[in-house]
Amino acid sequence: MFKRSLLFLIFIGLISCSNGYNKIPQELRDVNRLVKNIIPFKKCDYWCYAEGHFASSSDKIDIIYQVGEKPKSLKFKDPGPGLFVGCAPLLCYKYITYVNDGKVIYVNNADDLKKFIGPVDNIEEALLIGLSDGLEIDNDTRGGTYKVTDQGYELLLTHFINCPITKESVYLKFNKSGLIEKTPQSVFHKEKGCIVY
């Protein structure tokens, strides 16, 4: 009886793992690489992805990636805290600047990024939208997988909480128009401790 139960559990496990989801590979975990695959919704004469620093008062812009020729006649500035805060302990942030009809526009929050991307053209754009909403890619498949569908993309990403240390799986569904569903699934990791920066 025990052997039959064990075989049944293994069989169910194999079926549930063959749901079409793939672990998000390492090359899709680097935001700087993902950005290079953005196809902006609006026509842009120029756009760049840059890094700003909380501790800096400089007007110098650290451009990571750019498309087009930067207009010399326009003044660019650091718009302040934005997307993808990092450089532990939280010393830098990223943002996008683009030029449309001679006007400089800044993308430094999740909603602006969704508008800049518009229709989701690829898995990289879907991941960027999820990450800009504060989600993370975990090594555990319950919080770090994706699936390509006929309608678009499905992701399982992680909502991470510092105290107590908690990882919750979040389901995201995209069609060509963008994010159409974001649903918390279940907590898959919990510890008593806290992470303090």
Structure description:
With 197 residues, this protein is α+β, with helices and mostly antiparallel strands. It folds into 2 domains: 21-27 and 119-197, no CATH class; 42-117, no CATH class. 20% of the residues lie in helices and 37% in strands. It contains 4 helices and 10 strands. It has helices at 2-17, 31-35, 110-117, 123-132, and strands at residues 22-23, 46-53, 62-68, 83-86, 92-100, 103-107, 145-148, 152-161, 166-175, 178-190. The strands form 2 sheets. It has a 5-stranded antiparallel sheet with strand order 1-7-8-9-10, covered by helices on one side. The longest helix has 16 residues, at 2-17. Mean pLDDT is 86; it is low at 1-17. This is Lipoprotein. It comes from Mucilaginibacter gynuensis.
Q: In terms of topology, how is this protein built?
A:
Layout: H1 2-17, E1 22-23, H2 31-35, E2 46-53, E3 62-68, E4 83-86, E5 92-100, E6 103-107, H3 110-117, H4 123-132, E7 145-148, E8 152-161, E9 166-175, E10 178-190
Antiparallel strand pairs: 1-7, 2-3, 2-5, 4-5, 5-6, 7-8, 8-9, 9-10
